[in-house]
Structures are given as C-alpha cells and as structure tokens.
Amino acid sequence: MSSLNERVSRSDPEGRKMTIVEALREALQEEMRRDERVILLGEDIGVQGGFGGAFTVTLGLAEEFGRRRVIDTPITEAGIAGVATGAALGGLRPVADVQYGDFLFLAMDQLANHAAKLRYMSGGKLRVPMVMRAPVGATTRGAQHAQSLEAFFMHVPGLKVACPSNPYDAKGLLKTAIRLDDPVIFFEHKLLYGSKGSRKEAGGLEIFGTVPQEEYLIPFGQARVLRQGPDVTLVANLLMVHKSMQAAQNLAEAGIEAEVIDVRTLAPFDWPTLFESVSQTGKLVIVEEDNLTGGWGAEVAARTADTCIGYLQAPIRRVAAPDTPVPFAPIMENFYVPSVERIVATVTELM
Amino acid sequence: MKEVSLTKEKKLAIYRSMVLCRMFEERVNSLFLQGRMPGTIHQAQGQEASAVGVCQALQEHDMITSTHRPHEHAVARGIPVKNLMAELFAKKTGCCGGKGGSMHIGDAALGMLPAIAIVGGGIPLATGYALSFQYLKKPNIVACFFGDGASNIGSFHEAINMAAIWDLPVVFICENNKYGASTAIDQVMKVKRVSDRAAAYGIPGKTVDGNDVEIVYQAMQEAAARAREGKGPTLLELETYRLAGHSRSDPGHYRSKEEVAEWKKRDPIARFETTCLVEGFLTDNLIRTIRSSVEQELNEAVAFAEASPSPLPEECLTDVFVE
C-alpha cells in the first residue's frame, strides 16, 4: 500500500510524515489557534488522564486550549449534535464528534432535520458552521461499532460530507470543513488512524503521509486521481482507496492499468473528474465499504450511466459489502468487507 | 408569589400585544377557512399570556426558540406582522422568503430562530445558542418554548441536562396546554407536573398559572434574571389551554364541552382586561382604540401579503448551502 504515500510525498518532499490522527489533531490545533470561535464538543475528549476521544485525536488539546474550548459532554449524541448546531447559529464554529459513526443515528434528528435545514427554512438568513466528526468502518467490533454511513448523509440536502483516505487530505479537508459556513459530516476510517496513538487498531494500516509545514486547505468537491490508467476506472473512498490502489498494482502485473480516483468528498461530489476518467476508460468499478443497496456507489452508478452511457464499454460494477449487518467473527468480517481480491476479480471479469 | 409592579405603559404594551396575538390568530383562521392560504396551521388562541408574558420579559438581543405552534410567539416577540402574514401566504416577502411556512416562522435578527416543528427538537438548539451567549460573554439569554408533549422526548432530557451542568443562560418554558395533539398529558406522564422533572437536573422548576400574564411575566423575570446572572437554567411550566383545535382540521372531540367552557372563563385576555379596567387606566374607549389599531395593522399586513410577489418556482433551488 505504499504507492499512495509515495504519491502524496512527491507533492511535497519537504513535508513531515504523520498519521491521520496527528494530521487531524494538527488541523484542530491550527484552526483553534487561528479562530477563538472554534470549540470542540464530544465525549471523553478533554478529560485529564483520559483518551483524547475514542481514537486520541483530541489528546493534548484541552491542555493547550482549556476545558472552556475542549468541552467534555455527557453521553448525549442528540444533545451534542443539537448543541453544536445551536452554538453554530449563535456564532461559534463547533467541531463535535461521536466516538463511533454508528452513534450518529442517535443524532439524526438534529443533523438531518435541523442542522441541514435551518438555512433553507430561514430563507437563506442563517448559517450553520459546524463539523461533526465520525469514525466509520468494520474493525471486529460487531454490528453497532462498524457501519459505513456516508450514504445516509450524502442523501440529505444541506449537509456536506468528507471522507479522507490519508493524512494530507485529512488535515486539509478538516481545516476547510471548520471554515465552511455549512454543516459538514466528516468521516474518518478507524483502520486508517495509524498506529502512533495509544489506540492501535488490529488490522489497521500503517498510513503515514507527508504533511507540509506550511498551511494549506483542500477545497471540497475535488477528487484526486491517484493513479492513471487507460483500462478501467476505480472510484473509492476511505479504506477502500488503499484497497483499490493495491488492486491496481496487482492488476498491473496482469497487464491491466487501472485509473484510481479518491473521491475525498461525497457532497459535493466531483462529477467532472469521474466522468472525464470514465469517458477515457469506458469501464467503472465503484468500491465502497457500505452495504450494496443504496450505498453512495448506487448514486455514482446512476449518474455515470446517465452522463457517460455513450462511453461505457461494460456494465458499471460495484464492489460493496453484502446487505447484512457487520459480523463480528474476523473470518466473517473479512468476507464481508470488500477485499483486494474481490476488486481484482470484478475488474478482471469486465475485461 | 409577590406582587408584580408594572408601569401603566408596560401593562398597555402587554395588553396590546396579547390582543394582537389573538386577533392575528383569528384573522389567520378566517383566511384559512376562506382558502386563501396554503398548508396547515397550528393555532394558539388562549395561550397569549404565555407568549406575551415571556417575551415582554426579554431584552433586545435575547433569543427565543419555538414550536409547530409558533404564531403567537412570533407576534409577541415583535416580528413584523406583515412579514409573518406574507410567510403564511407563501410570499417572497415572508420572514422566511416562502421557504418556511407556518411551522417555521421566525427571524433570528429580530430575536426568534425559525420555529422548530419537530417536537422537542428546538430544546438542544436553544441550549447550544445559550452556550454561544455564555462563551462569547454576551449578557443575553434564550427563552425556549415547548409543549407538555415535548417533555417526554429524549432531546428534552439531553438538552436540559447539558444546560444544567454548564449553568447556561436559558429558560425552558413548557406551555402545558394539557394535550399533545389529542392525547391528554396525564395519560402519558406519571408525575403531576412537568416542572417536577427539574429535580432530575438539579435546577429550579416552577409551575404557575399560564393564563395570568402578570404571573407569567413575574416568573419569567425571575428565571431570566437567574440565567443572566450565570446561575443557570430554570424549568418554567405555564398551565394554559388552547381554545383552538390542534391543527386546522381538528374539531377537538377528545375534550369535553365543560372543560373547554371552564377554560374559556379563564381567557387570559379577558382576565387581564378586567384587571386593567379595575385599575382604571384602561377604559372601554381605550380598548376600542387599541382593537381598531390592531385591526388596521392586520388589514395592512393582509394587503401587504396579498400584494407581495410569490417566489419563483426555481427559487426552491437556492439557500441550501452558503457556499
């Protein structure tokens, strides 16, 4: 899985290597230093002697910014989302988080009915500059700490959705998310956090990315073409970006050159980059960890068919999880989560 | 409760505001029956003491949050009646540009967030807004209106708990009108009073006659002062009654005629009018003058709304995002 890191590194040889956890923490730290209105809200995020959140992202921030700005909440996901939304209406720029993305269902009313709609309902008078961070992905925790929820939120008009796959994107997108005046759901994959924190994930990837010393922002709605190839387009997000890159390497050994696109944000979605690629390759395979039915890949397939039908030389295929809850047993979970082998097999079948 | 001492000017302002609330609702009801407005409405006739007593105790930059029954809150908060009427008429000049409608009226610049029509959904928002006041060291408070029905939903518990632990400048105002739609509150709540629940959060809880505007004003003043002093939230329960149905299609068969008649005797406007007449500064002549000026204001509002342009159909595509 080294090619993505190398590619990121090449863009800035002077940068520093860090994990996604460190990159996210640095984004929060920089934005909090820059803007007094940025506050953090979440469970176990600032407690002295605590964890710095479920995955250590906020570790040390309470020491620098104080408990007034790094606010530990009760276990109260609807409360966290609603209070963050209300505080955003009142002029703050809250960055809230839930310990596991699955808990967003508890906050769904506040996110989907209020945060997403208040600007619209007010006739464009209100702004809701809040970020909700949420870890997703199957990591041998069973069905309720494992789901990939991006499609739920991509479906809600009024919400922006980010899903970075590497430290460089994680930092640049989180800084942008904090500065946006719209609500952002910011998904992070548990297996990509990196192992430098105290909460090493079994099966986690050693994702170190190069992050420049100087400040940078990454705009929403710009996918990144990680690998060019004329034979097939692979489009993916989060962990599936890395699996797709590995699959592309394996395919290359068989003489199939895949183009790999990391969507980086699902809302807004960079349709031009995808359509440009598909119009060149004529084949599209969408790789996502969500359940097949109604996943974000379904929308991508529909739009691509709509726009690129004249270029398609094969059916659009999706490599996704089956329509079951996430299983616990590692042997079943490995079967459930899309694998490099499934991606390779799906592409090979199209050739 | 100790006697409130309000100036005559303040009492007249309260009286006029209550009359405006009631006559606004009556006018809207008649416009609906004539088929001149789209959508549905949830009216609050009979609850004027609550809306006006609370809002008259607020300051300019304070904020209120409201519910699916928001007309009187908006009128009492001072949102221009013509912009409220235009919103109900689905016009571009409405306070939400025609994108809100009856259940979402409001104007944050004038101290009222768009009304939240998910029962209980506004309570966490009010709490968050209060957090911004506290964080930004502003001297303001949030008045969070909700009904008895909302006190059974999770967001009530989650938000009041957070406001309590952080001593946020917010007053939680439960307008207990005895029914959540058609379900009587005593069927769905084991404690006697909604305010009993304050004990669970370690904050003061108080139940008062929500149809006596002076008592409401006094109770709100105390709760607001406490919030402004950084001492945290209060759960204030106002016992009241909606004389209208739940929504425009509701004839209210679940309530006895006797019960409705009993509450009609406690009409908050009639009661306050009598008090003011006895005190002598309000006269029959002055009542006529006030009613006729309110009538005039409503006539102008309806004329403004009817003459206003509709939004363009494709304007439904804007205001989803800032950028």
What would you report as the Rg of chain A, rounded to the nearest angstrom? 19 Å
CATH superfamily of chain B: Thiamin diphosphate (ThDP)-binding fold, Pyr/PP domains
In terms of structural class, how would the helical and strand content of chain B be classed? alpha/beta
Give the name of the CATH architecture of chain B: 3-Layer(aba) Sandwich
Largest protein interface?
A-B, 40 and 44 residues
The chain-level structural class of chain A is alpha/beta
Give the overall form of chain B: globular
Write the element-wise H/E pattern of chain B from the N-terminal end onward.
HHEHHHEHEEEHEHEHHH
Low-confidence stretches of chain B: none
Question: How many β-strand stretches of chain A?
Answer: 14
Question: What fraction of residues of chain B sit in β-strands?
Answer: 5-15%
Main beta-sheet strand count, sense and barrel state of chain B = 5 strands, parallel
N-end to C-end Cα span of chain A: 24 Å
Order of helices and strands of chain A: HEHEHEHEHHEHEHEEEEHEEHEHEHH
Biggest sheet statistics of chain A: 7 strands, mixed
Strand content of chain A: 15-25%
Helical stretch tally of chain A = 13
Helix content of chain B: 40-55%
Count of spatially separate domains of chain B: 1
The count of strands of chain B amounts to: 7
Structure description:
The complex is a heterodimer of chains A (351) and B (323). Chain A is an alpha/beta fold. Chain A has 2 domains: 2-211, Thiamin diphosphate (ThDP)-binding fold, Pyr/PP domains (Rossmann fold), CATH 3.40.50.970; 224-350, Rossmann fold (3-Layer(aba) Sandwich), CATH 3.40.50. Chain A contains 13 helices and 14 strands. Chain A has a 7-stranded mixed sheet with strand order 3-2-4-5-7-6-12, with helices on both faces. Chain B has 323 residues and is of the alpha/beta class. Chain B has one domain: 3-Layer(aba) Sandwich (Rossmann fold), CATH 3.40.50. In chain B, 43% of the residues lie in helices and 10% in strands. In chain B, the strands form 2 sheets. Chain B has a 5-stranded parallel sheet with strand order 1-2-3-7-6, sandwiched between helices. A two-stranded antiparallel ribbon of chain B has the order 4-5. The model of chain B has no long low-confidence stretch (mean pLDDT 96). Chain A binds chain B through residues 39, 68, 73-74, 76, 78-79, 81-92, 94, 109-110, 113-114, 118-127, 157-158, 160, 180-182, and chain B through 63, 94-100, 104, 106-109, 113-114, 116, 118, 121, 123-133, 135-136, 154-155, 158-159, 161-162, 165, 318-323.
